[in-house]
């Protein structure tokens, strides 16, 4: 007899297909960290306020702590572990390092993913729009100016 509290979901995580049994009450954060060992996804506030748990779901920045894993069925999930390609840092990761936007690193994965989504959108953003887009992330170390500069640098077209 199948447990009514579990469901098998199929998700694409960092370009790898994954079929996994989840408790219907588990957050995507819990599944990514505890079942798939993707510990770059950080648990901060657990109420969707700090942005530490941000992942991209179909290229949309999403707080995985308040997103049920069953909602991810059939979706493409990108975590910080899926940003570098063949051991080479992404443009966004390089910009964060170049601008000194990485301090303790706790908020950095979520910010890098949000910035990656902005870059992937191929839109042009004003300074105020950039600030609004990254405003869902709390950082206790940098004062945000370096994060803003790194995001702006990432959006420069080469």
From TrEMBL:
Task: Determine the domain of life of the protein's source.
Answer: Bacteria
The name of this protein is (2Fe-2S)-binding protein
State the organism of origin: Clostridium hominis
PANTHER family, alphabetically? OXIDOREDUCTASE WITH IRON-SULFUR SUBUNIT, XANTHINE DEHYDROGENASE IRON-SULFUR-BINDING SUBUNIT XDHC-RELATED
Task: Pinpoint the 2Fe-2S ferredoxin-type domain residues.
Answer: 7-83
Q: Name one Pfam family in it.
A: Fer2
Q: Which PROSITE patterns match?
A: 2FE2S_FER_1, 2FE2S_FER_2
List the signal peptide residues: none
Alphabetic keyword roster: 2Fe-2S, Iron, Iron-sulfur, Metal-binding, Oxidoreductase
């Amino acid at each position: 007899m199948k447990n009514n509290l579990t469901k098998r979901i199929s998700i694409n995580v960092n370009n790898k297909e994954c079929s996994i049994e989840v408790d219907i009450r588990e957050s995507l954060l819990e599944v990514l960290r505890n079942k798939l060992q993707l510990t770059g996804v950080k648990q901060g506030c657990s109420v969707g306020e700090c942005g530490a748990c941000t992942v991209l779901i179909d290229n949309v920045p999403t707080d995985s702590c308040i997103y049920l894993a069953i909602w991810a069925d059939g979706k493409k999930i990108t975590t910080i572990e899926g940003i570098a390609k063949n051991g080479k840092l992404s443009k966004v990761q390089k910009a964060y390092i170049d601008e000194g936007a990485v301090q303790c690193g706790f908020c950095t994965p979520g910010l890098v993913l949000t910035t990656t989504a902005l870059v992937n959108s191929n839109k042009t953003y004003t300074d105020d729009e950039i600030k609004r887009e990254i405003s869902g992330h709390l950082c206790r170390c940098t004062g945000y100016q370096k994060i803003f500069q790194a995001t702006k640098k990432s959006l420069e077209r080469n």
